[in-house]
Structures are given as structure tokens and as C-alpha cells.
Design goal:
heterodimer, B: mainly alpha, ABC transporter involved in vitamin B12 uptake, BtuC, 15 helices, 2 strands
């Protein structure tokens, strides 16, 4: 029982982890709580679904196209909505919610309001791990997430571009003085963040039935993880994912699914009381 | 960065702006006339409305007015965004409905309990999250609103889940049952006046001045000895209390509640109503709900998606080009005329 619960938890946590990484990146660098990423998640799912079912391509192509679509949406959002909004020092959060509303309802009109499902790649093959069983597909998703985290971390800490992004998140004016372009950094940040969220949506699509409002739940969970872990911190994301992803699955495995969201809520409030800036967050002025 | 046009609009929105006496007299005059006119329309207008459908809209607008007036305590007076008020409304609605139906509470008893429950959760959430800067507070209210909705859906033993709670009795006060729509409208109107009175008392009190100071420059306010966190939590608690009260009124009016009435979209609508009408103004929280409820009800006759898309586009245009809402425009025109 415990092994099975942990395996399920690991799969859920992998998806949350990708989304939370994307969100924390955009939040840390751009200072935007980008709820519109819910639409990116949904778009990733639909693009992957249509690539497989309509075009008949393999799933790896589906993932690639989903990521490209996600990047296009995220970058366009940044360029056409957030940048003008920030120039007028209006609230990007409200703009983000407006974008979410627009994209979701356009999706209802384009894709219809039915729930979509399709069978995951690798068929119904399963792997036995100890006393638990996990489909090969879910194991692959876990593998992708496990690979993505160190890649993102290495990009941010080792490459010049990554260092520029971190410099921008620490001190905008300082970064500008040493010649880091705000426009390029915002472009790369949005591309990377949206790619991660779109990838997560595409990976989730064969497992869950989805419609135009698919991303909302994932985004809410991911933001909870970001707050619990501490805004803008990768280590915080990992710890937050572990607590929320596994906590929920332990509760739904041993007590009841109905109370698993209650766990999220109680954890969020408890962390806010005990460590208001999150477990790994830096203090905001 | 912003254009001169916008700067004027921003300036006009500051309530404590010292103005030349003639200008102030002119605006005061217009303002008083507008308030008296609005009150007259609100009291006498519905008597001439025959259609029960329009009476129904008026009740719904009234309930949204209470919600937006309450929300404006946070958005207008504190200058923060809050996106979970539909959740607090749901808490008031479920608490009141369940107590009246199962525990034999009277309507006013249920309403008071619903209000108290929403206040309790307001303090529980406001206390930790209002200490944080940046996006924390608004993201937390957003998440909390969604989690409340999940609880309404998932705690099936208590709330009957997605099926909803049917058969909530109509309110009864001192033997009089508010059965028809017109009488309910006046009940709601009485509560609107109560909320307006409380808001006015807050505004002219020490607390109102403290909130203005906190909104304009929190560090400075703390430096002169204003206990900003305590005032912020109080304002948020008052705001969630209003939302809970509106929820109870809503439950006993529709006689049926389900989780869908208190979802994130409703929180969002309330916030847009507040922005559209004009935050931090007296009439803004009345104009916004009236306008948007009418548009929303009209759009129900067609497909809802195009209306929602339009809604999103308008929202983005409002925050870019009209940050102080309709009342901001009115003030701008008024000021130009006076000068």
C-alpha cells in the first residue's frame, strides 16, 4: 500500500514540479504572478492531443510541438500584454487573469466543451517496484521531471544567460548597469517558464481527461507549492512539491480523496503562520 | 512613463486631495446631488417595476453591491487586491443555510452566524498573509477562494457536494416572510445601507485615516506609530464579514446554493466590478455591479464564451487606460468643468 501511494505521489509531484519551476522562474525574475500559465498548460495538453490523434505523429513530436506552442503563447503574452501593463505600472496579476479568461474561452469555442481522452504511449505496460505497480508512461514522466530540474538549475547557475537571468532577479538596476538587456532576459525567462508549463500539460494529457479549463487546478497547486517553498527558490519548489505532492496522496490513499485538498489548505496556512516567507524564501522588503 | 492624462486621473482619485475652495464646493455639490438622486432611485425606482425578471436582477445587483462594497474595504481603502471573496460569500451562505435548515436558527441568527464564520476565516487567512509584501496576499486569497470552493464540493456529508443544498427557507423577521422579490429587494437595500453606514463610520474614524496612511506609504505610517498590521487585518476581517453576510442573503433569496455559485469566476467578477466602478469611491461600488450584472445577465441569453472573452479584453483595457474606473472619469470631467 505505502509503495503504491508513494509511486502515485511521485507521478503527481513530477507534474507539479515542472509547473512550479516555470511559475517560480517568472515570478522571481519578472515579478509577475502569471496565472495565465494555466492557459499554457491547457494549450500544451491540446496540442499534444491533436498531434497524436489528428496528425498521427509520435508522442515525442507531440511534446515538441506542445512546447513550441507554449513558448509562443508565453512570449506573446509577455510582449503584447505584460510589457505595456508594466510600463503603465498597472497590475500584471489582473492582466494575467484577463488573459486566462480570454484564452480559456477561445479554447472552448475552438476545441469544444467536451472532455478529451486518448491512450498514453507505451500502451498498458506496467513496471513492478516492490509492492507497487506503475505504468511505464508514468515512470517516463517521472524520469523527465527528474532530468528537467538539474538541467534548469545548471542553466541558471552555469551559463552566461542563466547568470544574467539571476542577476536580473536580484537587482534590476544593477543588472542594467553591467549591460544586461531587460528585454532579452524577459524573453528567455518567459520562453523557459512557458516551455516547462506546456511540457507538463502535454505530459498530463494522456493520463487525465481534459477540457479548456484543464490548467486551473494544476496552477493553483503549483502556486501553493511556490508559496510554501518560498517565492523564486528552486530548492523551495522541490521541498514544496515533496510536501504537497506526497501529502495529498498519503491523505487520499489512507483517509479519503475528499480531504486531500484540505491538506493543501492546512499546510499553506500553517507554513504562512510559521514561516511567512516560505520555507526557502528570501524576505521581501 | 505615464502620460499626463493618466497623471490627472490618478490625482483625481486621491480622496484627501487639498483643493481650492470653489472646486471643492462644486464637486461637493455635484456629489451630494448624485448621492441623493441614487438613494431616491434605489428606494422609489423598484416600485414602478412590474416585471419580476427585472426585480430579480435588482435583488442580484443589490447582493453584488454588498459584496463589492465589502471588497472595496480591501481594494479601495487598503490598496490591495483580493480574489477570494466568492469563497467567503460561500462560507456565509452555507453556514446560514445549514444552521437555519438543520439547527432551527432564525434567519437573523443564521445570517449573524454566517457573517461571524466568514469573519473568523478572514482573520485566520488575513493574519498571516497580510504581513507579506509583493504578490503574496493576492495569490493567497486566490488560492483560498479556490480551496473553499473545493471544500464545498468535496465535503459531501455536510454540503451535499456538487448536488447543492435545496429547500433553504425564505427569511422571516418578526413573523413577516420575505416571500416576493420586491420585499426581498428592500431587505437587501436595508443591508446595503447598513454596510454603507459601517464603511462611512470606518472612513471618518481614526481607523479610516490610519488605512489611508497605510495605503499611501506603509513604512511612513508605521514610523509614526500606526500599527499597520492590526489595521489591515481588521479591514480584511470587516471585508470578509460583509461577504459572508451577502452570502447568507444570497442563500435565502435563491433558496438553493451549490459550489458553482461561489467559484473563482465570481470572485473575479466582483473584483472587475470594483475596478470598473472605481475603487475607493462611494458610488463606484454601486455603479460597477449594476453595469456588469446587467451585461452578464444579458449575455446569458447568448453563448457565454464571447461575453467572457470580451470581459477579459475590457479588463485589460481598463487597467491600462482607465485605472480609476468610471468614477475616476466622472471626477476628471467634473474637475475640468470646475476649473
Amino acid at each position: 500500500m505505502l509503495t503504491q501511494v508513494l509511486l502515485n505521489g511521485l507521478f503527481a509531484a513530477s507534474l507539479y514540479c515542472l509547473v512550479a519551476l516555470g511559475l517560480t522562474l517568472i515570478l522571481g525574475v519578472m515579478d509577475i504572478a502569471d496565472f495565465a500559465q494555466g492557459a499554457t498548460y491547457m494549450l500544451g495538453a491540446f496540442v499534444a492531443f491533436l498531434t497524436v490523434t489528428e496528425l498521427g505523429f509520435g508522442f515525442h513530436w507531440a511534446l515538441l510541438l506542445a512546447i513550441l506552442a507554449a513558448i509562443a503563447l508565453g512570449v506573446a503574452n509577455n510582449h503584447f500584454i505584460y510589457q505595456p501593463v508594466m510600463r503603465r505600472s498597472a497590475s500584471t496579476l489582473i492582466a494575467a487573469l484577463g488573459v486566462l479568461l480570454i484564452v480559456q474561452n477561445v479554447a472552448v469555442m475552438v476545441f469544444g466543451s467536451d472532455f478529451q481522452t486518448y491512450s498514453p504511449p507505451f500502451g498498458t505496460n506496467v513496471v513492478e517496484i516492490g509492492a507497487g505497480v506503475i505504468p511505464v508512461y508514468k515512470l517516463t514522466v517521472i524520469g523527465i521531471a527528474v532530468a528537467a530540474v538539474p538541467l534548469v538549475w545548471a542553466f541558471l547557475s552555469k551559463t552566461a544567460t542563466g547568470k544574467a537571468i539571476r542577476a536580473m532577479s536580484q537587482n534590476k538596476e544593477g543588472a542594467a548597469i553591467v549591460g544586461i538587456g531587460a528585454r532579452e532576459v524577459s524573453l528567455i525567462t518567459f520562453a523557459l517558464g512557458s516551455a516547462l508549463v506546456g511540457l507538463a500539460g502535454a505530459l498530463a494529457s494522456p493520463v487525465y481527461a481534459f477540457d479548456a479549463f484543464f490548467g486551473a487546478d494544476a496552477i493553483v497547486k503549483a502556486f501553493t507549492i511556490v508559496i510554501v517553498g518560498g517565492m523564486g527558490s528552486i530548492a523551495g519548489v522541490l521541498v514544496g512539491v515533496a510536501i504537497i505532492g506526497f501529502g495529498e496522496n498519503l491523505v487520499s490513499g489512507y483517509i479519503s480523496t475528499e480531504y486531500s485538498t484540505l491538506v493543501t489548505f492546512v499546510l499553506l496556512i500553517a507554513v504562512l503562520f510559521l514561516r511567512p516567507h516560505g520555507l526557502f524564501g528570501k524576505r521581501y522588503a | 512613463m505615464s502620460t499626463p492624462h493618466l497623471q490627472v486621473a490618478k490625482h483625481a482619485s486621491a480622496t484627501s486631495r487639498p483643493a481650492e475652495p470653489e472646486v471643492r464646493a462644486a464637486t461637493g455639490h455635484v456629489k451630494r446631488a448624485a448621492v441623493v438622486f441614487a438613494l431616491l432611485v434605489a428606494v422609489a425606482g423598484p416600485l414602478f417595476v412590474e416585471s419580476t425578471l427585472i426585480q430579480h436582477f435588482l435583488v442580484l445587483i443589490g447582493i453584488n453591491v454588498i459584496l463589492v462594497l465589502s471588497l472595496d474595504l480591501v481594494v479601495g481603502m487598503l490598496g490591495l487586491s483580493a480574489l477570494g471573496h466568492a469563497g467567503f460569500m460561500g462560507i456565509g451562505a452555507y453556514t446560514s443555510a445549514l444552521l437555519v435548515m438543520n439547527q432551527g436558527f432564525s434567519f437573523l441568527g443564521g445570517l449573524a452566524a454566517g457573517t461571524a464564520m466568514a469573519t473568523f476565516f478572514g482573520v485566520l487567512i488575513g493574519y498571516p498573509s497580510l504581513r507579506l509584501g509583493g504578490h503574496f496576499f493576492v495569490v493567497v486569497t486566490f488560492i483560498v477562494g479556490i480551496v473553499f470552493n473545493l471544500l464545498f464540493t468535496n465535503l459531501v456529508e455536510i454540503t451535499k457536494g456538487p448536488m447543492g443544498l435545496p429547500g433553504i427557507p425564505a427569511p422571516e423577521i418578526g413573523g413577516y416572510v420575505f416571500q416576493d422579490k420586491l420585499s426581498y429587494y428592500y431587505l437587501v437595500l436595508a443591508f446595503i445601507l447598513l454596510v454603507l453606514f459601517i464603511k462611512w463610520r470606518v472612513h471618518v474614524s481614526r481607523m479610516g485615516r490610519a488605512l489611508t496612511a497605510i495605503r499611501e506609504e506603509e513604512d511612513l505610517a508605521r514610523a509614526v506609530g500606526i500599527r499597520s498590521h492590526r489595521y489591515k487585518v481588521t479591514a480584511f476581517a470587516l471585508s470578509t464579514a460583509g461577504a459572508g453576510m451577502a452570502g447568507a442573503l444570497y442563500a435565502h433569496y435563491l433558496r438553493f446554493i451549490g459550489p458553482a455559485s461561489f467559484d473563482f469566476l465570481h470572485s473575479f467578477d466582483l473584483f472587475v466590478m470594483n475596478l470598473l466602478g472605481g475603487k475607493g469611491t462611494l458610488l463606484g461600488p454601486i455603479i460597477g455591479p449594476a453595469l456588469l450584472t446587467a451585461i452578464d445577465q444579458a449575455s446569458q441569453l447568448f453563448r457565454p464564451e464571447p461575453a467572457r472573452i470580451l470581459f477579459g479584453v475590457c479588463l485589460i483595457l481598463i487597467i491600462i487606460y482607465m485605472p480609476s474606473g468610471i468614477m475616476g472619469l466622472v471626477r476628471l470631467l467634473d474637475r475640468r468643468k470646475a476649473l
